[in-house]
C-alpha cells in the first residue's frame, strides 16, 4: 500500500481551512489518503469537548465517508518496539501518536503531521509536514 496517513493535527488543519493542507488533499488521489481509527477517536473526543459539538462530530464522519480508515490490527509488538526506541532516547511521546505510527508502519504509509519532531524519531516511520509546506 502506498499513500499517506494523516495525523490528527493535520486533519484539524484541514477542517479549519488553515494552511495548505486542503490543497495537498485535493491534489492527492483519495485512495492514497488514510486515517487511523485512533484519529477518529481523537476527533470525536475533541468534538464532544468543543462548543460546537454537532458541527465537529460531522468531521470524523466526513473522513469515514470519503477516505479509508485503518484499524490497528496486530499492534502490540510494533507499539512496544516504537515506544522502547523512543524512551531509550529519552523521548516521551503520546500513546496515540505511537499508535498512529504503528498503523502507518503496518501499511507502509507516510505519516503527514506537523509534529515531525516526534514522528521522525520513530523507527520505520517516514513523515512529511503538509502544514509547513505550501504548494504553488
What are the SSEs and their pairings?
Layout: E1 4-6, H1 8-15, H2 21-27, E2 33-36, H3 37-48, H4 53-66, E3 68-70, H5 76-88, H6 95-107, E4 110-112, H7 116-119, E5 127-128
Parallel strand pairs: 1-2, 1-4, 2-3, 4-5
Helix pairs in contact: 3-4, 5-6
Polypeptide structure, described:
By secondary structure, the chain is of the alpha/beta class. The chain has one domain (4-128): 5'-nuclease (Rossmann fold). The protein contains seven helices and five strands; from the N terminus they run βααβααβααβαβ. It has a five-stranded parallel β-sheet, with helices on both faces. Helix 5 (76-88) packs across helix 6. It is globular. The mean pLDDT is 93.
List keywords for this structure.
136 residues, Rossmann fold, five-stranded parallel β-sheet, 52% helix
Number of helices: 7
What is the CATH domain class?
Alpha Beta
**Gap between N and C termini:** 27 Å
Q: How would a textbook summarize the main sheet?
A: 5 strands, parallel
In total, how many beta strands?
A: 5
Label the overall shape.
globular
The value of Rg in angstroms is 14 Å
Mean pLDDT: 93
The chain-level structural class is alpha/beta
The CATH architecture designation is 3-Layer(aba) Sandwich
Spans of at least 5 consecutive residues whose pLDDT stays below 50 are none
Q: What's this model, at a glance?
A:
With 136 residues, the chain is α/β, with parallel strands linked by helices. The chain has seven helices and five strands, in the order βααβααβααβαβ.
Amino acid at each position: 500500500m502506498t499513500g499517506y496517513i494523516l495525523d490528527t493535527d493535520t486533519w484539524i488543519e484541514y477542517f479549519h481551512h488553515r494552511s495548505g493542507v486542503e490543497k495537498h488533499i485535493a491534489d492527492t488521489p483519495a485512495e492514497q489518503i488514510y486515517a487511523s481509527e485512533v484519529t477518529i477517536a481523537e476527533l470525536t473526543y475533541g468534538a464532544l469537548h468543543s462548543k460546537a459539538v454537532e458541527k465537529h462530530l460531522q468531521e470524523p464522519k466526513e473522513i469515514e465517508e470519503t477516505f479509508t480508515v485503518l484499524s490497528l490490527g496486530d499492534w502490540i509488538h510494533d507499539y512496544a518496539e516504537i515506544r522502547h526506541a523512543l524512551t531509550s532516547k529519552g523521548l516521551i511521546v503520546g500513546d496515540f501518536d505511537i499508535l498512529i505510527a504503528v498503523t502507518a508502519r503496518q501499511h507502509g504509509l507516510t505519516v503527514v503531521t506537523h509534529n515531525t519532531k516526534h514522528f521522525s524519531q520513530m523507527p520505520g516511520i517516514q513523515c512529511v509536514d503538509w502544514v509547513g509546506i505550501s504548494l504553488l
